[in-house]
Write a structure and sequence with these properties.
By secondary structure, the chain is of the alpha+beta class. The chain has helices spanning 7-48, 58-71, 82-85, 186-194, 218-224, 281-289, 297-307, 316-319, 357-371; strands spanning 89-94, 118-126, 128-133, 148-150, 156-158, 164-169, 175-185, 200-203, 208-210, 248-256, 264-266, 270-271, 277-279, 353-354. Residues 305-327 are annotated as: Disordered.
Length: 390
């Protein structure tokens, strides 16, 4: 062939030959797929024949069964389609009983095993202060002392009193809280929002995460695209400029619109070197009420005391005044707070917003890679941060 055709003609003919071969292979593969689909539909129709009391329904039922298989992630060829199984997730910052080790943690999980929430790490959020809402009598979520539940073994037990943190904005840079960040399916996110306690909501653009605080996990920085692993700026803690638009990120965060006018318990945390007062739910609630450990007797008893205003750690303003009297707290809940724009929300269009699915995918991929390299017993320390005891 080389003897009869110049080089440029040779190249054209070779390209044409390769293209024709590829087209033939594609057609053959498509024909095979069509045959497999026909076999699958025939099989489904045969399976449904015993229910031929309404033969006209068989094609419809077959189509319905195919739809169920597709929803479950199977193509008509019977192969598992991994792209359909992976649920779309979002990052959510929570602080309270949705954390690991507390009763409502399961609310972040989907129905199936692969839909369970993935713990990403910790995030220090500035400008929020923690109080405990103890649900006094008359509140929708109040649980009377004589209420009982049935445990897994069928025994009747006294139902535990409700209590959750209320993290309100204060306009004070030195108020901060360590949130737990999870990647949750969009269905679970909607369920979590619908079942939030009173006064709480999920805000997409108010809480400001300090990406370079020592309390913030590397996995959260990776999600923001500024972690050392993701090739972004920084790569260390505390070395970033406060004026850098990329140092602070916003994300879906559980916050409170306000605190109860009465019976609110102030959380006591620890102080950082720069004067920042930091709270963490597990440690602060243990300090206020007792540890979250079975049989929960001390903790639950102290929560019930707080409902009546008799807890020692309760602020005087919420324990010594009648319900009908106006209560003045550190935050005046009767007035609109004019938010500091330098403290809340994304600073500019360059500021990381961990809202989209891509941020969640980055975080999950990083966490899964890390988990593959650490002992199973150390999975809970993946965030790389432990709050101080004092």
């Amino acid at each position: 062939m080389c003897c009869f055709f110049p080089p440029h003609i040779l190249r054209e003919k070779s390209s044409y030959f390769i293209h024709s071969l590829s087209a033939s292979l594609r057609e053959e593969e498509e024909e095979k797929e069509r045959r497999n689909e026909g076999k699958t539909l025939t099989m489904l129709t045969t399976m449904l024949k015993p229910f031929s009391f309404a033969k006209s329904l068989v094609p419809s039922l077959a189509c319905f069964a195919c739809g169920v298989l597709l929803e479950l992630g199977f193509g008509l060829t019977g192969k598992l389609r991994r792209g359909n199984v992976t649920k779309k997730r979002r990052l959510l910052a929570v602080s309270g009983t949705l954390q690991d080790g507390f009763a409502l943690r399961k609310n972040l999980d989907g129905v199936r095993e692969e839909d369970k929430a993935v713990f990403i790490g910790f995030a220090l959020v500035r400008g929020v202060k923690m109080y405990f809402d103890v649900k006094p009598e008359g509140c929708r979520e109040h649980v009377r002392k004589d209420f009982e539940d049935e445990d897994e073994e069928g025994r009747r037990r006294q139902r535990r009193p409700n209590m959750n943190p209320a993290l309100v904005v204060t306009n004070d840079w030195n108020d901060a809280n360590v949130y737990h960040v999870f990647a949750v399916t969009e269905e679970a996110l909607c369920e979590a929002l619908a079942n939030e306690p009173r006064y709480l909501g999920i805000a997409p653009d108010i809480a400001k995460v300090d990406l370079w605080a020592k309390e913030t996990s590397e996995s959260v920085r990776v999600a923001a695209g500024v972690g050392s692993v993701s090739g972004g700026g920084g790569g260390g803690v505390g070395g970033e400029n406060d004026d850098d638009d990329t140092r602070y990120a916003t994300m879906l965060t559980v916050v409170a619109y306000g605190i109860p006018g009465a019976r609110a318990v102030e959380a006591k945390g620890y102080a950082k070197e720069d004067g920042c007062r930091v709270t963490t739910f597990a440690e602060c609630s243990a300090r206020a009420f007792g540890d979250e450990k079975p049989p929960f007797t001390t903790r639950d008893a102290n929560i019930r005391k707080a409902q009546k205003g008799n807890l020692a750690s309760q602020s005087p303003s919420s324990s010594s005044k009648d319900d009908d009297e106006e209560i003045h707290d550190a935050i005046n809940t009767t007035k609109i707070i004019r938010l500091r724009e330098d403290l809340y929300g994304a600073r500019s269009s360059f500021s990381p917003r961990l809202i989209d699915r891509t941020a969640a995918e980055r975080a999950v991929a990083y966490v899964q890679k890390q988990r593959a390299t650490i002992p199973k017993s150390d999975v809970n320390t993946l965030g790389g941060y432990s709050p101080p005891d004092a």
